[in-house]
């Protein structure tokens, strides 16, 4: 249009979005109609068979199972046929509100469908459990050019049974989007408002009835198989890591694989294996039994993935600010999902093994002892009261129903987060673990701290063991780095020194978890930078904590060097000149001590050391205490690693310099294999040469 258009640019864009939303509704309606057609196709042959001497189903059973499905098909066929030509002949003045208003006025048919659900399910299950004559007769049911066995039809029916209810939910959400892009002055606006009001009222009226049904599946009359917990996990299969979705029901533990979606087909699961809870145990590894080897991914490779993820996120934000095309952003989002998926697959290294008393064992890898303990507790609690019965028919039906039953719908990737969802906290969280009360008998007690980072939880700190007490007073401070973190978890353990009492579970010596709890890291509450005291209650035990948050903006801020003595906060050139060495004494001492006794530790630089130990070492190095090597030999290796990290963090200028930081980030982010490793090495040599020349020219540090 020319300058005389009656539409403003923003209004024009909104109306274009209106057409885009309607095109999406059309495509969705087409898929939904195909689902309804799939349900209706068997009706004719089933009805014909009902009049013979050997009916597959009685007329009453057919009426019950397919209740209101033909009416729903006719309603949506009429809606689709009315909407299609209007979208094809589109103009901004085009009206569609009357079609949505009429569709909303017919929601009473959905009410009848929902009210009949329980009876339809019971009828379907009775038919599935019928004798072989039904299967023999139903093998002749022709659906187009393919044959569908009677049992398979009911698997399909069960999977599609919630389609109509889900349709109302999705339609209501899309109707909301359509209304948002429809100007108030447009004739459709009041009609769409009315349709949205009717739909929302209908949804709220049936939600209370539908929710419990979505979370359960009938096993026998009067009993239900309830979903208790589900989660994505990494399974170790013949040495390879595989992403799985696991489901804990009231009577069984099911491991499923999410099938790839092809051509817009609905989500489906493939059952890999299951264990009845009556037969499930947590594998007790005998001394002579070989424990499956867990392939560990080196920390440097995981760090490279994290840096690459951070780089891509920054690129996405830059493209958004530059208002670049959506294709560039979509490509970056795809790369981000690939990297995040790889990190989630490769990072877990803690074994969680389950054993079927009548068969084999299975190994999962998870990153959090908190989650491993939670799964064990849930399973053990349910084992006290479960009974088991499952036919092959029911197994297939159950697997199909997992799409509807799941509570964890998405892998924790950035692309699966809502735009308004909190990105979490970035910076440093100081935590003081003060004390604990509520223990019934004297024990050797310690705590660990976990935070979420890049979509999964990792262990970040561990207190010392407080021996023979019911009221430990640790009073230990830790500094924990946060990378998009939202939750702080604490686990309290009893340290077992008596080897006769050690539980050989999952092939390793494990201390007993006495309690666990967590707190949400509220950005608003933590912004005032003051210490905040809190109490975490867990299984009758109370642990007292204090927390303080420093944002990345302040924690990484370099301060000009005013010190001429000591080593912390002093330029490297000054320290090396004073010590007459090429590498500062603190760096040599810390690295040597870590390499001497810390190479077998997991997460040397990731797990936080005790802050008081780090400060003691800092003071000793600053005054050139001759006993510093003795102090280090008596301290936890994580405290030594923490001292080295603190030294580098307090340098007036980054070791790798501000101007060369992007080059180092690119070099670390290049995770290469095969021949590409040579290119990566060349890149590193070039960057290090640039650093050498930069340091030499500026006179800050001689590098030979």
Describe the structure.
The chain is 46% helix and 21% strand. The protein is of the alpha+beta class. The strands form five sheets. Strands 3, 4, 5, 6, 7, 8, 9 and 10 form an eight-stranded antiparallel beta sheet that branches. Strands 12, 13, 14, 16 and 19 form a five-stranded antiparallel beta sheet that branches. α7 (117-128) packs antiparallel against α9 and α12 (299-321) packs antiparallel against α13. The longest helix has 32 residues, at 9-40. It is globular and about 100 Å long. Its main location: other. It holds the Pfam family RhoGAP. It comes from Cairina moschata (Muscovy duck). One of its GO terms (biological process) is signal transduction.
Any idea what the radius of gyration is? Answer: 32 Å
Q: What's the total helix number?
A: 24
Structural class determined from secondary elements: alpha+beta
Largest sheet: 8 strands, antiparallel
Low-confidence stretches: 1-7, 131-156, 217-222, 285-290, 500-509, 699-704
The helix content is 40-55%
Distance between the termini: 68 Å
Number of E-type strands: 21
The proportion of strand residues reads 15-25%
Shape by Cα distribution: globular
Q: What is the mean pLDDT?
A: 78
């Amino acid at each position: 249009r020319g300058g005389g258009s009656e539409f403003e640019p923003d209004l024009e864009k909104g109306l274009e979005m209106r057409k885009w939303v309607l095109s999406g509704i059309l495509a969705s309606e087409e898929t939904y109609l195909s689902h309804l057609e799939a349900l209706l196709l068997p009706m004719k042959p089933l009805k014909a068979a009902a009049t013979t001497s050997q009916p597959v189903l009685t007329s009453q059973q057919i009426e019950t199972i397919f209740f209101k499905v033909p009416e729903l098909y006719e309603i949506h066929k009429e809606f689709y046929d009315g909407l299609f030509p209007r979208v094809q002949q589109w103009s901004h003045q085009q009206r569609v509100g009357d079609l949505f208003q009429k569709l909303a006025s017919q929601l009473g048919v959905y009410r009848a469908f929902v009210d009949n659900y329980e009876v339809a399910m019971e009828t379907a299950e009775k038919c599935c459990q019928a004798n072989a004559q039904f299967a023999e007769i139903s093998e002749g049911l022709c659906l187009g050019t393919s044959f569908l066995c009677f049992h398979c039809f009911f698997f399909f029916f069960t999977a599609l049974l919630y389609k109509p209810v889900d349709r109302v939910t999705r339609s209501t959400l899309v109707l909301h989007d359509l209304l948002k892009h429809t100007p108030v002055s447009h004739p459709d606006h009041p009609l769409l408002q009315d349709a949205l009001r009717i739909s929302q009222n209908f949804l709220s009226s049936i939600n209370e009835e539908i929710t419990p049904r979505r979370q359960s599946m009938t096993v026998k009359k009067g009993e239900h198989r309830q979903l208790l917990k589900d989660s994505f996990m990494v399974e170790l299969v013949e040495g390879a890591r595989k992403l799985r979705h696991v489901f804990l029901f009231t009577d069984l533990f099911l491991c499923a694989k999410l099938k790839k979606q092809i051509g817009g087909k609905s989500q489906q699961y493939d059952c890999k294996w299951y264990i009845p809870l009556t037969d499930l145990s947590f594998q007790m590894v005998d001394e002579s039994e070989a424990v499956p080897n867990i392939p560990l991914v080196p920390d440097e490779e995981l760090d490279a993935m994290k840096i690459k993820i951070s780089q891509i996120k920054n690129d996405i934000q830059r493209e958004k600010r530059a208002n670049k095309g959506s294709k560039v952003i979509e490509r970056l989002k795809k790369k981000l999902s690939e990297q995040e998926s790889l990190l989630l697959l490769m990072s877990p290294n803690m074994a969680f093994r389950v054993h079927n008393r009548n068969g084999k064992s299975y190994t999962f890898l998870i990153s959090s002892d908190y989650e491993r303990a939670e799964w064990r507790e849930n399973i053990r609690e349910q084992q006290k009261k479960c009974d088991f019965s499952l036919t092959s028919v029911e197994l297939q039906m159950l697997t199909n129903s997992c799409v509807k039953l799941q509570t964890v719908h998405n892998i924790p990737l950035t692309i699966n987060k809502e735009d308004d969802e909190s990105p979490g906290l970035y910076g440093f969280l100081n935590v003081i673990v003060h004390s604990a009360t509520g223990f019934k008998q004297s024990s050797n007690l310690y705590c660990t701290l976990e935070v979420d980072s890049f979509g999964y939880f990792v262990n970040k700190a561990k207190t010392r063991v407080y021996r023979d007490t019911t009221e430990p007073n640790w009073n230990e401070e830790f500094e924990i780095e946060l990378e998009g973190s939202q939750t702080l978890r604490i686990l309290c353990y009893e340290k077992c020194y008596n080897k006769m009492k050690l539980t050989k579970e999952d092939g390793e010596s494990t201390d007993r978890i006495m309690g666990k709890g967590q707190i949400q890291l509220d950005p608003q509450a933590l912004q005032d930078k003051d210490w905040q005291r809190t109490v975490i209650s867990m299984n009758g035990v109370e642990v007292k904590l204090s927390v303080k948050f420093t944002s990345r903006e302040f924690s990484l801020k370099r301060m000009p060097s005013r010190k001429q003595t000591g080593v912390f906060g002093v330029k490297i050139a000054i320290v090396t000149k004073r010590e007459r060495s090429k590498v500062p004494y603190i760096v040599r001492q810390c690295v040597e001590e870590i390499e001497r006794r810390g190479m077998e530790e997991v997460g040397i630089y990731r797990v936080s050391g005790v802050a008081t130990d780090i400060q003691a070492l800092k003071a000793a190095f600053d005054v050139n205490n001759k006993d510093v090597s003795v102090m280090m030999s008596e301290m936890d290796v994580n405290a030594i690693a923490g001292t080295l990290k603190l030294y580098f963090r307090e340098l007036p200028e980054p070791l790798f310099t501000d101007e060369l930081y992007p080059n180092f980030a690119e070099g670390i982010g290049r995770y290469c294999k095969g021949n590409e490793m040579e290119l990566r090495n060349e890149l590193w040599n070039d960057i290090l040469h640039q650093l050498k020349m930069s340091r030499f020219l500026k006179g800050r540090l001689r590098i030979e």
